[in-house]
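ok so i was messing around last nite and threw this chain in just to see what happens. nothing serious, just curious
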Amino acid sequence: MSSDFRDWIAAWLAPRDTSGPRPEDLRASTADRERVFTALTDAVADGRLTPAEHEERVEAAYRAQTLGQLAQLTVDLLPPENQPIVMHERPVMALFRTENRGGRWVVPAKIPVTSFGGKVNIDLRDALLQTHRVVVQLAVMAGTVTLLVPDGVLVTVAPQARVRTFKNQTRPPESASPPIIELAGFAYGGKVIARCPNPPKRGLFRR
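result:
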């Protein structure tokens, strides 16, 4: 067995790092509450919640202190991929299909990502990084992995990684110590793309 596959299997089988707080125990922000309020407003507007239920959940959202408490208020209203706050704890896998991960989610210190003939889209723009350095452990065969990162994040390739095709379309961070996304593992017969969102377009007469 090659070292690439050994590293990939180890990343998948490794126990979750429990040295830090659990994602659901992280403190909620005002922006997190606003996301939940929007989901609750939509639910009462189309009849999924009664006005009384809406009022009760809005009050609970105001009282909520953690992400886990907020997430429980919408779990029965939206499918997992549309939740305003997502607690992802599983690796990312795309076997001849497309797998998306994004929204408001907590990013662990290591993310095993597998793409065999498929596409993986990882959106980090609204994500919470639990650590300053996040390792994306790749196992890519004839697949594509696209990372959408906010400005100010540095995307690098680990020295031992075997990533044949990597297109880094991010903008250099201005900070001397930016958050780091490190690509490890292997990508054969496929590609990895990292890019930032497009900057807003300037109006024709804007100065």
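not much to say yet. Residues 30-45 form the longest helix (16 residues).
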